Amino acid sequence: MSAAQPEPRFWSGRPTVVTGGAGFLGSAVVRDLEALGADVRVVRSAEHDLRDPAAARAALDGGDVVIHLAANVGGIGFNRRNPAPLVYDNLMMVGNVFEQARQAGVRKLVSACTVCAYPKYTPAPFREKTLWEGYPEESNAPYGLAKKMMLVVSDAYRRQYGFDSCVPIVANLYGPGDNFDLEDSHVIAAMIRKYVEARDRGEPEVVLWGTGSPSREFLYVDDAARALLLAAERLETSEPVNIGTSVETRIRELAETIHRLTGYEGETVWDPSRPDGQPQRFLDVTRARELMGFEAQVPLEDGLRETIASFESALARP
């Protein structure tokens, strides 16, 4: 079965609001929506504070479809420094976006959840039925649990009001336009920056966090954007649905691949005093395939090449 593609007939002229539409994933979603002929409004945090009900209502009024991507989010270091803002900001946004979208007459809300919502010790591949069987990995818990509440809210609003929403659970993302800040970025962006800068400076070694033994699953941003549009078209349940590749990659293997693709000639040194995070993480994506026809299309090495090229291009700009 070939991977499903969004339907131009569904999107042509459709008023669509994308919260966080200027962000990493949001930019890819907005690009695809505009190509499909949707009438897109981008909601930026500088203009609409979604923690405030009135601001949320102003942002969502007139939307037929809302894709909610706005979040206070970062990597392990950011999560460890900011547990309270992560839980407060994201909970307030979730509550306001659902309630104000309902009041504004929105017909479909797609609210993206995170793989961080899963319990720390979950048999891999992660299946949706295990989502409530334990506490998330501690460094991710405030963010992951705040986002996990979207599933509760979606189900409650469907039962109470007949409000149509869905909460796809998205794997770790990467791709061009990612956040490459070493303090707050995710693993692929941080590695690419470290290897490219070490190569350009002629440094003899690159130091990476942890032991390299954990595994992750990495979803290219364009695949994730397509999945969210398919969710708006086809996903008519508040049950969790995993969005990913179902391909497990060890962090050490990822580092070796980026090492090779960047042309770095020095050594990689692992710092085991730094946290590894969750020991194993990849998803069973059967439900997404069955309910939405979604299949990831971009192999990891191809996506890494594109991401490295985009970072190098950004470095070269004056």
How do the strands and helices of this protein lay out in sequence?
Layout (H helix, E strand, L loop, with lengths): L7 H4 L3 E5 L4 H12 L3 E5 L9 H8 L4 E4 L7 H6 L1 H21 L4 E4 L1 E2 L26 H21 L3 E2 L1 E3 L1 E3 L12 H15 L3 E5 L5 E2 L1 E3 H14 L6 E3 L5 E2 H12 L4 E5 L14 H7 L7 H17 L2
Parallel strand pairs: 1-2, 1-3, 3-4, 4-6, 5-7, 7-12, 8-11, 9-14
Antiparallel strand pairs: 10-13
Helix pairs in contact: 2-8, 3-5, 5-6, 7-9, 7-11, 9-11
Explain how this protein is built.
- The N and C termini lie far apart (45 Å).
- The protein is globular, with a radius of gyration of 19 Å.
- The chain is 43% helix and 15% strand.
- It is of the alpha/beta class.
- Helix 2 crosses helix 8, helix 5 packs parallel to helix 6 and helix 7 packs across helix 11.
- The chain has 11 helices and 14 strands.
- Strand 1, helix 2 and strand 2 form a beta-alpha-beta unit.
- The mean pLDDT is 94.
- The strands form 5 sheets. A 5-stranded parallel sheet has the order 2-1-3-4-6, with helices on both faces. A 3-stranded parallel sheet has the order 5-7-12.
